[in-house]
Amino acid sequence: MDVDIPQRGKRRRFPEKFKEQAVALLLESGKPAAEVAVLLGVDRTNLQKWKKRFQQRIEARSSEFPSGSSGSQDLRGMQKEIDSLKEMIGHLQTIMKKSFMNIYREEIGQSKSDEKLKML
Hints:
- This protein folds into 2 domains: 1-64, Orthogonal Bundle (Arc Repressor Mutant, subunit A); 70-120.
- The mean pLDDT is 81.
- Helix 1 (16-29) crosses helix 2 (33-40), helix 1 crosses helix 3 and helix 2 packs across helix 3.
- Helix content is 75%, strand content 0%.
- The chain contains 4 helices and no strands.
């Protein structure tokens, strides 16, 4: 973590970035809040308050999606569409390769026929 931890004193103020990183560490590590708090040198209750605040922000943002659909459903639908488009692109690339090979073979065949005609 590249945010400075304020020195212990009567009342410490932590930068917002530090709080975000502390919550991220808590969520990603899977360790208990008390253990993460000790590692960071903060009070466990502060860490839990930060986590609750950030979760509320996330929930508020997710409520901005149109009613009747959740953000994760939208993302899953978009991912399915992307996968479908990738598959279509793969098929089109295969068709193009085969077409180019056929054209190339015809061109080679035509040039060989022209050479044979010139020899006659």
